[in-house]
Amino acid sequence: MHKKIFEEYPVPKAIATLALPTILGMLVNIIYNMADTFFVGQTQDKNQVAAITLCLPIFMFFMSIGNIFGVGGGAYISRLLGEKNYEKIKNVSSFCFYACIVISILCTLLFNFFIEDILRLLGTSEATYYFTKSYLIILSYGAVFICLQMVFSGMVRSEGSSKQAMIGMMIGTILNIVLDPIMIFSMKLGVIGAGLATIIGNIASCIYYIIYILIKKSTLCINPKSFVIKSEIIKNILIIGIPVSINTILISFANIILNNFASSYNEGVVAALGIANRVANIAIMLLLGLAQGSQPFIGYNFAAKNYHRMNQAIRFGILCSIIIGSSIFLGAFLFSEQIVTAFLKEVQVIDYGKYFIKATMAVTPILGIQFIFMSSFQAMGKGLPALIVSLSRQGLAFIPALIIGNKLFGLNGIVWAQPFADLVSIFVSAIMYVAIYKKIKINKN
User: How far apart, in Å, are the Cα atoms of 112 and each of 132, 191, 209?
Assistant: First the structure.
């Protein structure tokens, strides 16, 4: 069935078959990420909402560890499928599983040892310290499940099983949404309950993926006997996984800087920025879902040297990303006040939040172009271009814009830094793809 999708389906039908479950999975993931903020917001305690915002960089750091193996390993698996090298797929998937477990456990130990330093780095105030520390401790102990969930979803999606990847994400999300109000309100655990619900949801997702790999007819494998340490496997995983991970780490680092700047104003600004970023994540996750859903198709046809079919998929993906991005932008612009009010009803937070949402969503109509190109670079095994796009969006463009913007324009400079960085990275990614595709055509001829 997967071979038929990659080789025989018309490109729009193939992309829809692969990307729609991934987009739905990302939509579920959006709900998953917003659930804690929403339910904690119902306490009407802006300090607890601010605490979750301050911990977001740490959650994203754990995701970055999972992305090394989920995206890096997944892109390699897609190319191996195109080469029909099924034995090596077992070695790669097994390596990703066990290597992720080891690294995430080491991260848990390090985070707990340096927790006080991390809390200072995150920009906690006296009002948010206890809530932030409580939430952070729970996240660190559940790091292995956060990381593995990313690994499993990336690998399962890479073999064309987008529906199963979506189901795994949905299981965790639904459980989290069910447990949040029970633990936050009924058990009176507040932000601690939100953290526990998040980790339990990730555990449930991991259990589903393990059952799927062991029972279904999957090309993936987590059998210790298939685990091998080979330089070729490590190189092909890291050449894509590291740029993706660096991107997520840079997002975390940039969020730390952003939260520190925001904390210098007041907790209302921190809470409003947290809400605006959650809304912006709706666009990012859906557009990433489209890009990641297309990635196995692009990688398979690149490995099979069917460049015309590959390029058709990229053009179709860009068109879809513009339609999706424009729709989200319009909705966020028209209903910004209602969105903020759904989280917190404090007047100060509402005023800040409406403006922050409109500013952060300004480039959304064309935002997905960079994700399509980045996924294409990853699918082709082009690690350096993927790294450059990652560095442009969150490092080379965003962090300097954030620092300079704060110095020259204060709060306005902070809010408009990300849209500026997105414009830069879209331009850079488009130039690099044109250059790479010209080189492909020359080599083909």
Answer: 13, 18, 28
Is the pLDDT confidence value at 1 over 70? no
What pLDDT, on the 0 to 100 scale, is given for residue 444? 60
Share of the chain above pLDDT 70, in %: 95
Report the distance separating Cα 426 and Cα 255, nearest Å: 20
User: Which residues does 295 contact at the CB level (< 8 Å), separation at least 6?
Assistant: 74, 75, 78, 157, 158, 375, 376, 378, 379
Check if the beta carbon of residue 433 is closer than 8 Å to that of residue 425. Answer: no
164 token code pair: 């199963």
The pTM assigned to this predicted structure is 0.71
Are the C-beta atoms of 162 and 25 separated by less than 8 Å? yes
Give 149-152 contacts, CB < 8 A, sequence gap 24+. 149/66, 149/202, 149/205, 149/206, 149/209, 150/63, 150/65, 150/66, 150/67, 150/69, 150/70, 151/66, 151/69, 151/70, 151/73, 151/96, 151/97, 151/100, 152/70, 152/205, 152/206, 152/209, 152/210, 152/213
Query: Which run of H or E residues covers position 83?
Result: helix 46-83
Q: Specify whether the CB–CB gap between 197 and 176 falls below 8 A.
A: yes
Q: How many CB atoms lie within 10 A of CB 431?
A: 12
Q: How would you classify residue 399: left for phi > 0, otherwise alpha for psi between -120 and 50, otherwise beta?
A: alpha
| pLDDT at 241 exceeding the cut of 60 | yes
Selection from 426, 328, 420 nearest residue 374 by Cα: 426
- Exposure on the CB side of residue 230, measured as CA atoms within 13 A: 12
In 3D space, the residue among 198, 187, 203, 49 whose CA is nearest the CA of residue 137 turns out to be 198
Residue 36's domain comprises 2-444
Q: What is the pLDDT of residues 143-170, one digit of tens each?
A: 999 999 999 988 998 887 878 888 898 8
Contacts of 9 (CB under 8 A, 6+ apart): 17
| C-alpha dihedral (124, 129, 131, 137), degrees to nearest 10 | 90
Angstrom distances, CA of residue 6 to CA of 10, 26, 343: 9, 22, 42
50, 195 contact by CB (below 8 A): no
Q: How many domains does one find in the chain?
A: 1
Cα separation values, 254 from 61, 394, 395, Å: 12, 7, 8
Backbone φ and ψ for 125, nearest 5 degrees, come out as -105, 180
342 CB-near residues (< 8 Å, 6+ apart): 38, 41
